[in-house]
DNA sequence: CGTTGTGAAGAGGTTCACAGCA
DNA sequence: TGCTGTGAACCTCTTCACAACG
């Protein structure tokens, strides 16, 4: 039941929280590289990434000792090491399923095709949308899903389908061999062991913000009512 | 420097991890309510929300004792309590800044206007886009940002602007009094103490998936090279 | 009885503070 | 000297296991 893999000589157990921050560091490093900055200290890089320097150093220490004491980190070298660790030195083929408003926006998003990701296929069930060309790709009918996933060697599926379609579509991409899913539909997907799902949910984010907003304003509505009841001795 | 507020009689210190899950529970409860289910056990609700039952019970216990031992939770009552805690029993006015592909998709997204959120304003800098009607609202020029935020009592700003515009726009909404921001631009926003920012970043999500995908395939590229170097005695 | 609510133990993540090294 | 890398302390979150209770 343990997930620790023990593959390779180096410790492969990078904490999940660290993995989630590596892309942020990578982006900050790319910005520095564009400005021809050669070396960066943990303090500077941490500031650019919005974390504190101790956390940054501990995160990087999980990848190895890629810094120089008294100096800092070489930007280009660190870019390479983080990229390699994240698996961005190889190409991943991505399919978008569902080309409504959101799917189109994702398909058109430039940063999407950032290093390492290749948008390989667009799929939809609506005959009106099928055949349309979006960002240089033709939208295929979802009936061809299994075949296209195999032919294009899709490894990541992005689901931008309606909530009701999400689980069935998920089941199909999983049984076609996809083991990484980015889900924009507002449902909790059930997947077999070994399949990774990440969820992006606008409405959940708003609700979390509302909670904090309310707290800043002095706690939940109904508190006064409860207070009155308590005073009343009920 | 402590953030504990000690307002009100009940313990207001709900763990952040719990807050992030309450919207998921709420959605599951709404689904149950639609099917006219009156009572639910922690086991059932947990399954619907994709968590284990101990975690669900602990989460709910932070809100109060709203269950009945031997029976479970009353669906409608729990919906109300969670909604109240999240601040969804009042209305929050939301503004979307930036109406490119993504901004339009967000403006058109139905679930966006889910209970508690009112899309109150759309803003863009592009004169071609300004004046356009999207989902019943007219896009206003960003020059009117300060005025509109005040007039519409905007409490949450959604930023769907290009990366280069994100920080300046953020500064403007913050100085207009907004203290909750949902950021879709791929930058780390700097904000004053007391302002909450949540980030949605497609490319980061893909990179995290790539990391796990690579691990399933047997670890990072370059491991063999390192291995050879080690054998070589370098 | 069956299920909640919760202390206690455990796991994971963050921060501190400084030894170790270029 | 200045910055990295890291043990140790601390904190947060999760899970267990069971007492409490309708």
Automatic annotation (TrEMBL), chains A, B:
DNA-binding region positions on the chain: 24-63
Domain of life of the organism encoding this protein: Bacteria
NCBIfam families assigned to the protein according to its UniProt record, in alphabetical order: PRK05472.1-3, PRK05472.2-1, PRK05472.2-2, PRK05472.2-3, PRK05472.2-4, PRK05472.2-5
Compartments reported by the entry: Cytoplasm
Alphabetic keyword roster: Cytoplasm, DNA-binding, NAD, Repressor, Transcription, Transcription regulation
Quaternary data: Homodimer.
Position of the signal peptide: none
Name of this protein: Redox-sensing transcriptional repressor Rex
Sites where the protein binds NAD(+): 98-103
Chain's gene name: rex
Role according to the record: Modulates transcription in response to changes in cellular NADH/NAD(+) redox state.
Predominant cellular place of this UniProt entry's protein: cytoplasm
The CoA-binding domain, residue ranges: 87-188
Family, per entry: Belongs to the transcriptional regulatory Rex family.
